[in-house]
Sequence to fold (631 residues):
Amino acid sequence: MTLRWKTWAVRLLLLFWALQLVWLAHYFTPEVRDLAWRLASHHTGAAIRQEDPLYRWLQILAGIIPPQATYVFLDNYESGKEIEARYHLAPRRHVLLPPETPPDFLFFALRQEKAAYLIIREGDHPWESKEAVAQSPAFHMVPVPGPGLLFRVDSARLLGRFYD
Amino acid sequence: MIDLVLTLSRLLLGLAAVFLLGYGWFALLVPRPAAFLRLEKLALSFGIGATVLTLWMLILSWLGLKLSLPVMLVPPLAVTGAGLLMKKIGGGGLGSQTPASAPKPSPPTPYGLWDWVFLGLLAVLFLYASLRAMVYPMWAWDAIATWGCKAKVFYQSLGLDLTCIDAHNYYPNLLPLLLSYLYFCLGRVNDHLAQGLFPLWGTLLLALLQAFLKRCGLSRTRALGVTTFFALNGTVFPVHLYIAYADLPLAYFALAAVGLLYLWFTDRAPRGSLALAACFFAGLAWCKYEGPPLAGTVLLAAVLSLAWLRPPDLKARFLGLGIPLLGLAAGYLPWRIFAALEHLQIGADHIQNLYPQQFLQGSVYLLMALANPFYFGVLWPALILALVFCGRSLWLSPRLFLALFVGGNLLAIVVAYGVAPTSLAEFPGYVRATLDRLLLHITPVAALLIGEGVKELRGGQGALGKM
Fold:
C-alpha cells in the first residue's frame, strides 16, 4: 500500500516535470532563435555591442577622456545605463549622481571629486542643473553626437557658490 | 579563423592550468587519490585550483607585485609540485581521520536507454549555455556592475586596484580575479570568451552532484536522473550558466562543502575528504559576501546533527569539524585583513533593525518562489515528497544534517529580509532581485536530499524503480 502511493506520487511529479520541460523549451525558444541567427550570420561577440548606440557613444568618449581622469555621470541608477558606462569607461574614476541633483550639489561634487568631465545621459528624466551648467563658464560642451552630452569641466572655476 | 582557434587554445590552456593546480593540491591533501572517481577529481580540482590561484593573486597584490601570467602561475605550481615530490618521498599525506570504509565504485556497466536520455538532455543544456555565454558579450546587471567590471580593472591595472570602483569594493574577489586571470591568458579583455567559465562551472557542479549521489548509494541511472531533474527545473539554473554572476560558483562551493561533510557523516567519504571540504569552505568565504554565513550554517547544521544523533565517536567528530573551520578562516581572513589594511569600508547595509512586516512579507514571497515553477520548476515540491519518503530516518540518520542545512537557510533568508533596510515601496523589488539567487545557493543540496528520497524507492515498482 505504501509503495503504491509512493509510486503514484512519483509518477504525478514526473508528469509535472515533463510538462515543465516543454514549457522550459518554449520559454528559451526566442533566445535560441536569436542565437542561431547570430551564429549563422557570424554576428557574434563584440559585434553585438556595436548594435547599441550607447556603447558606440561611450567608445568615442573613451577616446576623449584620459584613463586617469574622473567623471561625474548624471543618470538614474535604475535605468542600468550608468553601470554600462562605468564598465566601458573603466579604469576612469566614475561618480554617479541622479538627474534631480540640484546645481549647488552638482558643482560641489564636481569640485570635491576633482572631476574633469561631466557626462549626462539624456534619458527619461529631465536633469535639474541644465540651466546652471549652460550658464556657468566652468563647463565646455564637447560636441559628440549620441544619446547624451559631454562637458569638459574646469573645476578650478567652480567656486562653490550657488549657481557660481 | 586561425585567430579564433589560437584564442580558444589560450583560454583552454588557462583553464587547464587551474585544473592542474587544483589537482596538485587534491593529490597533496588526499592520501589515496585513486579512491576518488575521475569525475570527482575533475570536479573538485577546479574549485580548489580557482581558490588557491586567486588567493595567491591577492597575496601578490598585497606584496605590491604586478600581476602577470608567470608570477601568477609558476610559484604556486612549483610549490605544489615540490609538495607532491615530498609526499612521494615521505609516503605520507595530509588526510583526515576519516574512516576508510568508502564503498568501492561499482564496475562500469553499459549505458541504458535512460542514461542516454538524461545525458542527451544535459548535453543540449550544456551546448545551449556554452554558446549563449560565449557568443554574447557580458551583459547581465551584476556582471557588468560588479564582477566583470572589477575583473576588467584588475587586468588593466595589473593588481587589485579598487580606487575607481566605489560600489561593493568590499566584496570578496575570487570571481573577478579568476576572470582577470583568464584575460591575462587571452591577452586582452574578451568578456564573451571568458564567460565560457560559467557553463564549465555549472557542468562541474552537475558532475559533483552526480558523483555524490552515486556515493550515497544511487545507481548511475538514478543519479543521472536526479542530476537532470535538478538542472532542467525552472529558469534560474540554466540562466546562471551563461551570466557572469558569483552565485553559481557559490552554489558549487556550497554543494562541495556540504556533500563532502555529508559523506564523512555517513562514513562513505574516502580518506582526506575533510581536508578537501576545508578547501571548499575557503572557496565559500572567498567567493561571495554571503559565503561566510552560508559556511556558518553548514557548520551549525553539522554540530546540531552530531549533538542530536550522538554517534559513538562523537568527540572525534566534533574535533574533525575543526578542519573545515580552519578552511573557512583561510578563505575569510586574508581578504578581511587586506580590506582592513587598505581601509576599505565594509558594508553593513544588510544588518539593521528587525522589521516584522518585512519578515512576514518575506515569508510569503519565499513560499511563492518555492512553489512557482518559473524559478525552480517542481524541484522544491519534489523535496517535500522526498522528505516524506525519508520519514523517520530523517531524524535518526545523517540525513538530518542535509535537512537542517536546507531548512536553516530557508529560515535565514526570511530573517535576512526581516532586517533588510529597504523602504516599503522598494522591498518587493529587492526581494525579486535577490530571492532566486539566494535559493540557488542551496538548491544543489536540496537535490542531494531528493536523491536520499529516491533511495527510499529502491525495489519499488514506481517510474524510477523500473529504470
In short: Chain B has one domain: 2-79+122-455.
